[in-house]
Design goal:
Oligomer: single chain
Number of strands: 11
Strand content: 25-35%
Order of helices and strands: EEHEEEEEEEEEHH
Structural class: alpha+beta
């Protein structure tokens, strides 16, 4: 009978050791859920953002329209209609996407470009060479039809954009103030971090000095006094 770790092994054989590869496999299996979570989080995320509402004469501008879908809905049939709403409330078609981008006859023909994404979650268009007559209300209409195994649901999404065209660019004071506040906050955080580092350094240095002084005082005590200090006190 052989012994390992103070316990007898059955049938006189030594207990097998866990292979290194098996340990690595167990570690990988333990971290597998975390890796899956990281991959899921790092997937591209669809976010609905507001469209530009101001444009400058002669410059291009983007009319942003985003209609997010869930992952299982990406293979939907999508049709996108863009309209200009006249002051009288009449819907004037200006652009169409039905399988492919299509221009519509009218004042906007030749000045509109498709600016959407391949998965058709972003169905935006751009106006090139903006004119003063482009001021007004635009509406994006998205129709989706989903082909699932048992049913084919559909839905329609609307978005309205009010565009104002200026002859010259207007300075955005909000963006200027935001940039100033960002730099002020950055300087404050840098100063706070520096103070914290100095405080921690001094605290660690003081602790080291106290420990060194205690060690020096202990070594300076004669050996017979050390024995007296270590002996129990009796009455």
């Amino acid at each position: 009978m052989s012994f390992m770790s103070g316990r007898p092994s059955p049938r006189g054989f030594s207990l097998p050791r866990t292979p290194k590869k098996m340990i690595q496999t167990r570690i990988l299996l333990q971290f597998l859920p975390f890796l899956i979570l990281v991959v899921q989080v790092s997937r591209p995320v669809c976010v609905e953002v507001p469209s530009e509402t101001e444009a400058v004469l002669g410059n291009p501008t983007k009319l942003t329209c985003i209609s997010c879908m869930m992952r299982e809905e990406v293979n939907a049939e999508t049709r996108v209609d863009w309209y200009y709403v006249s002051p009288k409330g009449e819907d004037i078609p200006i652009y169409l996407y039905d399988g492919q981008p299509q221009e519509v006859e009218g004042p906007w023909k030749g000045r509109l470009l498709w600016n959407g994404s391949k998965d058709l979650q972003d169905v935006s268009i751009s106006i090139i060479n903006v004119t003063l007559n482009d001021t007004g209300t635009y509406r994006c209409e998205v129709f989706r039809k989903f082909n699932f195994d048992f049913y084919t649901p559909s839905f329609t999404y609307f978005k309205t954009i009010n565009l104002e065209v200026h002859k010259e660019a207007i300075e955005d004071t909000t963006a200027l103030y935001s940039e100033i506040m960002m730099y002020v906050l950055l300087v404050f955080l840098t100063f706070w971090l520096l103070v914290e580092m100095i405080y921690c350094y001094r605290k660690i240095s003081k602790s080291d000095e106290q420990a060194q002084d205690n060690a020096t005082d202990y070594l300076a005590i004669p050996s017979e006094n050390k024995e007296t200090l270590g002996a129990p006190v009796t009455e």
